[in-house]
Amino acid sequence: MFQADTSKPGQLQSFNDDAVATESGNWLFRYWNMRESSDVDRAQSTLYEMRVIRTAVEGYAHVHNEYPSGKTMEDLQKAVQPDFIKILPMHDAWGTPFLYERDDKVGYRVVSAGADGKFDRATWSVGGATTSFAEDAVANGDAPGWFRYWETR
């Protein structure tokens, strides 16, 4: 049985790395056991996390009248955490770091490399749904919803 040790806030103590402890010692179950999940499950989880990232970016922009500058997720994390999000998701459900970049044309871009873990910048201008989980998912600042996403139904 899983036991949370709240006497050590910020320390991970779980089986299968399914939980993380927040600084206050609360447990946040963000992911189910991804080792046994299908690509559909991973895609749905990743798209959710990308929405969370977009919410933090848009919150920052609402206050500062511009999107966070930077070319990395670490730059974004410094800009939005903790004022606009407590814990910024940094990796997709396949374990690959998200890509964040500010872009003068579209405002910003949040990208998941998908199941293959390889970013393919050449595909980022092609919008709409894709049925291949190896393709990148892309959220742009100039488009409500998704610019490029996985069809999961």
Description:
It is built from two helices and seven strands, in the order ββααβββββ. The chain is of the alpha+beta class and 153 residues long. It has two domains: 1-30, no CATH class; 37-150, Glycoprotein, Type 4 Pilin (2-Layer Sandwich), CATH 3.30.700. Strand 1 (20-21) and strand 2 form a beta hairpin. The radius of gyration is 16 Å and the shape is globular.
Q: Helix-strand pattern, N to C?
A: EEHHEEEEE
Tell me the Rg in angstroms: 16 Å
What strand order characterises the main sheet? 3-4-6
Strand content: 15-25%
The helicity comes to 10-25%
Architecture of the largest domain in CATH? 2-Layer Sandwich
Major pleated sheet = 3 strands, antiparallel
- CATH domain class name of the largest domain: Alpha Beta
Any descriptors?
153 residues, alpha+beta, Glycoprotein, Type 4 Pilin, 2 domains, three-stranded antiparallel beta sheet, two-stranded antiparallel ribbon, globular, disordered N terminus
Quick synopsis:
The protein is α+β, with helices and mostly antiparallel strands and 153 residues long. The protein contains two helices and seven strands.
Q: Secondary-structure blueprint of this entry?
A:
Blueprint: E1 20-21, E2 27-28, H1 39-64, H2 73-80, E3 99-103, E4 107-112, E5 128-130, E6 137-140, E7 148-150
Parallel strand pairs: 5-7
Antiparallel strand pairs: 1-2, 3-4, 4-6
